[in-house]
Amino acid sequence: RRLVVLISGSGSNLQALIDAQNTPALPNTSIVLVLSNRKAAHGLVRATTASPPIPTAYLALQPYLRSNPGKTREDYDLELARIVLRAKPDVVVLAGWMHIVSEPFLEALRGTREVKDEGQGQDESSSNNDENPVPTNPIPVINLHPALPGQFDGANAIQRGYEAFQRGEVDKLGVMVHRVVAEVDRGEPLIVREVPIEKGESLEVYEERLHRVEWEIIVQATKRVLDEVKPLPLEDTENA
Ligand code: GRF
């Protein structure tokens, strides 16, 4: 089974998926592309130094807009989708992806929107489907978020959660992986794990403990969604 992982940062969740490939935690599964919107994302190094190395792609929004005057955020999102679709994933995992994925991106992965690039010549003879790939089945997108459902949308969720807990504004914290079905509404949670702060625990220590929970649930959630869309062949289930 084929995974595409989108990252923006250190890629520790990506690393958890890399380490789980083709083990009982994630049997018969390969990460076929790591896509980052930041060139400096350490996750890109994790991909290129994995064995076997994992193909990477990089597409940042501002440089794209600067070098494509007249193109919009929507065009950028469609270009992202084109790059993802060319890798023919069964599931797409957002692991520390610091953009809100947009409707055009999600529709392209559902197959309800073409990723045709207006700029390209309509040369019907060339089999341009590799340029404008269309998914045969809707490709699920899942996202890891370091907070509980409905809590702390956006960036720095861990620190904001920690501080809110210290101020007594929330009585529980945790992490979740959820489906991504539309730009604004968080899709149904797949796995939710409460991670209570231990007495007098510093933010740094709490964050490290919370990341370890993230690494567990991102692998579990990915396996669950993969098994929905691409169950293991029978002979694999014996030794999975
Ligand atoms: C994690 O805290 C994740 O929950 C959040 O951003 C961070 C990504 O970490 N979305 P990494 O890049 O996977 O190490």
TrEMBL record:
Polar residues biased stretches: 122-131
Q: What is its EC number?
A: 2.1.2.2
GO annotations of cellular component type: cytoplasm
Identify the residues that the record assigns to the Formyl transferase N-terminal domain, covering every copy: 2-111, 138-222
Spans annotated as Disordered:
114-138
Alphabetically sorted, this entry's keywords are: Purine biosynthesis, Transferase
Q: Which domain of life is it from?
A: Eukaryota
The UniProt entry, under Gene3D superfamilies, shows: Formyl transferase, N-terminal domain
Q: Which residues form the signal peptide?
A: none
Q: Is DNA-binding found in the keyword set?
A: no
The pathway it acts in is: Purine metabolism; IMP biosynthesis via de novo pathway; N(2)-formyl-N(1)-(5-phospho-D-ribosyl)glycinamide from N(1)-(5-phospho-D-ribosyl)glycinamide (10-formyl THF route): step 1/1
Q: Name one GO biological process term.
A: 'de novo' IMP biosynthetic process
Swiss-Prot/TrEMBL catalytic activity: N(1)-(5-phospho-beta-D-ribosyl)glycinamide + (6R)-10-formyltetrahydrofolate = N(2)-formyl-N(1)-(5-phospho-beta-D-ribosyl)glycinamide + (6S)-5,6,7,8-tetrahydrofolate + H(+)
Please give the Gene Ontology molecular function terms for this protein: phosphoribosylglycinamide formyltransferase activity
Where are its TM segments located? none
Q: Which Pfam families does the UniProt record give?
A: Formyl_trans_N
Q: Describe the family membership recorded for this protein in Swiss-Prot or TrEMBL.
A: Belongs to the GART family.
Q: Which PANTHER family match?
A: PHOSPHORIBOSYLGLYCINAMIDE FORMYLTRANSFERASE
Please state what the protein is called: phosphoribosylglycinamide formyltransferase 1
Species for this entry: Pisolithus tinctorius Marx 270
